[in-house]
Amino acid sequence: MPASLIITLSVVLATAVIVGAVLLLVRGYTDDLARAEGDLANLALTLQERTDGILQSIEGVLRDLVERIPQASLRATEFDGFAGSQATKAVLVGASCSLPQFVRIDLVNARGKLVGTSNPRPMSDPIYLTGASYYQAFTTDPSLTSYLSEPMRIRTTGKKVLSLARRINDTEGNLLGIVVSTIDLSHFETLFKEHLRKPSSAVTFYRRDGVVLAHIPNSERALGRKIWKLDTPLQRMIAKNSPTLIRDVSWIDRQERLFALHPLANQPGGIAVSRTVAELMAGQRLEARVIGLIAYLMGVAVDTASLMGLRHVRTGILRAASESYLSRHDVLTRLPNRPFFIEELKRTYLASQRTGTDFALHLLDLNRFKDINDNHGHGAGDEIIQIVARRLRERSRKSDFIARIGGDEFAIIQRPVRDRQQVKDFVAAIQAVMKTPCTAGSTEIDVGLSIGVAIASSDGKTATELMRAADVALFAAKSDTDSSYRFYDPNIQDSRAERRAIEGALKSALDNREFELFYQPILDLATNRMWGCEALVRWKHATKGMIPPLQFIPTAEESGLIAPIGDWILEEACATAMTWGLPLKVAVNLSPVQFKRRDVFASVTKALNLSGLPAHRLVLEITESVKLTEEATAALRRLKTLGVGISLDDFGTGYASMSYLRSFPFDKIKIDQSFVRSMIESSGSRAIIKATIGLANDLKMSTTAEGVETQDQLNALRVAGASQAQGYLIAKPMPREALAAFMADIQNPQQTARAVA
């Protein structure tokens, strides 16, 4: 046999082996990579939760120290003396001993001078810390309440530390001082070291701007420097601030690594856990045998240079396979992600057109998932997502395609389907499995699903149309209180289009002066005189006429437009109250969004200053939907210091009312109209009203009963001891001009008494 033929046959045989080896290699590598990804992601989550827990404990100590500052010391003239006293030093020493992570706790005044410390040694010379990053941050950004500094090394002890600082405001809301905790980094390093299981594993505790706060294995040159280099995949992923997996070259050891990133829940930072790609590949036993076989066969047919070239090709194939998997799958659930799902939907649609088979598209959304994250933490939210993904897999066939296409959104391509009943049965199976509560940590959480369904043969001429149909059905299901799923129907009205139109009109409504305030009088039951009025916004649309608040307030809140609208309401209500001949009070509702997107204290003080209204004549009404975060509570306390009244609206209708009364000293409780309207017929409503009034009296709060429509209701409220009454029996909401006439009519107390006797 000629030598050239032998070489040709050898090359053909080697090529066949390479193709088979690559197929086996990619499949095995993908499985191992998925396992490695899961391990890294779980470790990143674990360390994130542990780190968050430590920092939250430290934050709790700092908050407690700030809350202990007496009101009189919240002035620049008093603060230094308070901070430098022996009593305060004893408190700081006790606080610094409360957690093992503390090195010391200091108090710094607004000029940057160290005025109090837990350090037992007395301060001989004045120390100014104006160069510290936390001082510069707080003096530059008035909205900043907490700051995590870059790490440093104490020269005298060699100890590595970082600072967690908290802002202290004076009674006017200006910077009074800073409480600074110095934290021993060795506690974090020990925690990270305990969880390293693989030789090339590394853990990095980073700040959101990329600064390395701690790194294990120890790398002195990494501390305090940025974890990323400019315009790299790692930089972009850290900047996104969401859990993810990414491959990039680490500048710390110059090796290509697989990184699992998990941001902290309560601080501007995160945890990165990584392993080198070389170590991930080294464990491939099947790969090693296949590569050996390839090398032997290629050695028969080609020279060493060709062999080296094939090794290069092999490395390229492995890299491409890894990056392809990462770009097409969700890190948390291992399900296909949205881009992969869109590809598969298009392919399935074209295949169904060719074969004449049908399929169904299901879009699923978790109900109230934001509440789960808010009430139980993002770690619990991630566990819920994983449980839901597992249950969906268990109820699906191998031919079905499941994807996670958003934070709490899933999609299922059910294929093939015979008829509509088969689709209904599948929906019923999903609903049945979700009736079992999900266990996150040690907590059982009920999780509901809303499902929108579209069927290919009837609901869309393209994959894009089918997706839109399922989305409309999902939105209808979420809006329907009687059903948790909906099939697409062309007659379904997509209210989102109307909402977008309202949002567009809202943007110009302020400029066009289309908003108007109505005022509903409130009666003081002890004196039979007017106590004041509640300001209620109305929208007089140019073409649609008067639009009720329930039709535009939710849209204004979702779009963020409630913030400027709320400012206008405050300013208009205060200005109107100044025109009244009587020194009555005016009540204004505050939206939860105003606490998130506005400096409420600044908005209120601006309205008071512009109008000249005394602060004690303004009452702000909030509901339980306003989360009493530390910042929100601080803003309300500052408003109370001004003299503004704070009222809890719709009391008794939510689960958190009692905890709200414990969290903040309200001036008034408003009894919801649902109890008032049923109090004559319902002994339960009467008992609730009586208990609420008794509770308010014990807490030295007044009460306003809403929705009073009959004389019997008013008489019963008088007997129960309510402070004020509001409702159609007293007066309906009326515009500014009508209110002026109404107030003129009731100047005489006897007329007021006859009107409501």
- Report the helical percentage: 40-55%
Number of strands: 28
The chain-level structural class is: alpha+beta
Q: How is the main sheet built?
A: 8 strands, mixed, barrel
Distance between the termini: 122 Å
How big is the Rg?
Answer: 33 Å
Poorly predicted regions: 3-11, 21-30, 283-292, 294-322, 749-757
Please work out how many helical segments DSSP would assign. 27
Q: Strand portion, in percent?
A: 15-25%
InterPro entries: Biofilm_reg_signaling, EAL_dom, EAL_sf, GGDEF_dom, Nucleotide_cyclase, Rev_trsase/Diguanyl_cyclase
Pfam families: EAL (PF00563), GGDEF (PF00990)
Keywords: Membrane, Transmembrane, Transmembrane helix
Domain EAL: 499-747
Short descriptors:
757 residues; alpha+beta; six-stranded antiparallel sheet; 28 strands
Task: Describe the overall structure.
With 757 residues, the chain is an alpha+beta fold. The strands form 5 sheets. It has an 8-stranded mixed β-barrel with strand order 19-20-22-23-24-25-26-27, surrounded by 4 helices. A hairpin with a 6-residue loop joins β4 and β5. The chain is flat. Mean pLDDT is 81; it is low at 3-11, 21-30, 283-292, 294-322 and 749-757. The chain crosses the membrane at residues 6-26, 290-310. This is EAL domain-containing protein. Residues 357-490 form the GGDEF domain. Keywords: Membrane, Transmembrane, Transmembrane helix.
Quick structural gist:
This protein is of the alpha+beta class and 757 residues long.
Topology, element by element:
Elements (H helix, E strand, L loop, with lengths): L2 H65 L8 H8 L2 H11 L5 E8 L4 E4 L15 H8 L5 E3 L3 E2 L6 E10 L5 E10 L1 H9 L7 E6 L4 E5 L16 H8 L3 E6 L6 E8 L5 E8 H6 L2 H17 L2 H25 L9 H18 L2 E9 L2 H8 L1 H18 L5 E4 L4 E9 L2 H14 L4 E3 L2 E3 L3 E7 H4 L3 H17 L5 E3 L7 H15 L5 E10 L4 E13 L3 E3 L1 H11 L2 H16 L7 E5 L2 H6 L2 H12 L6 E5 L7 H13 L2 E7 L5 H7 L4 E4 L1 H5 L5 H16 L3 E4 L5 H10 L3 E2 L8 E2 H10 L3 H8 L1
Parallel strand pairs: 17-18, 20-22, 22-23, 23-24, 24-25, 25-26, 26-27
Antiparallel strand pairs: 1-2, 1-6, 3-5, 4-5, 5-6, 7-8, 7-11, 9-10, 10-11, 12-14, 12-17, 13-14, 15-16, 19-20, 19-27, 19-28, 20-21
Helix pairs in contact: 1-8, 1-9, 11-12, 16-17, 18-20
